[in-house]
Design brief:
The protein is mainly β and 127 residues long. It contains no helices and 11 strands. It has strands spanning 3-7, 10-13, 18-25, 32-39, 45-51, 58-60, 68-73, 78-83, 92-102, 114-117, 121-126.
Length: 127
């Protein structure tokens, strides 16, 4: 049974840093790209960033480039989202997801490319 469990969310002030974790089980984590998505209140869920299964490359949406960093520890089956210089617009429920395609060549950004999802963790940034 595939499980993705996010943790680390909470209330932070603008400018603060926060790191989210996502612990994976039930599939071969090291062979799948991992993505982070977020859903702000009243809005659709959107791509934040993703990391290649090798951990050697990542991709981000423009609004978080230079502020957010995704990393992974394949030995711990965990992917991380380091968020620096938080802004109020970063307030959202954050979801981690596993690309359904193993050993993929490119990092994919569409929700439909990701087959497994966590339950989400709320992050609120106060101004």
């Amino acid at each position: 049974q595939v499980r993705l469990v996010e943790s680390g969310g909470g209330l932070v002030q603008a400018g603060d840093s926060l790191r989210l974790s996502c612990a994976a089980s039930g599939f071969i984590f090291s062979k799948h790209a991992m993505g982070w998505f977020r859903q702000a209140p009243g809005k659709e869920r959107k791509f934040v960033g993703a990391i290649h299964w090798t951990g050697t490359s990542s991709k981000y949406t423009d609004s978080v480039k230079g502020r957010f960093t995704i990393s992974r520890d394949n030995a711990k089956n965990t992917v991380y989202l380091q968020m620096n210089n938080r802004e109020p617009d970063d307030t959202a429920v954050y979801y981690c997801a596993a690309d359904g395609l193993g050993l993929g060549y490119v990092i994919r950004v569409r929700e439909s490319d990701y087959d497994y999802w966590g339950q989400g963790t709320q992050v609120t940034v106060s101004s």
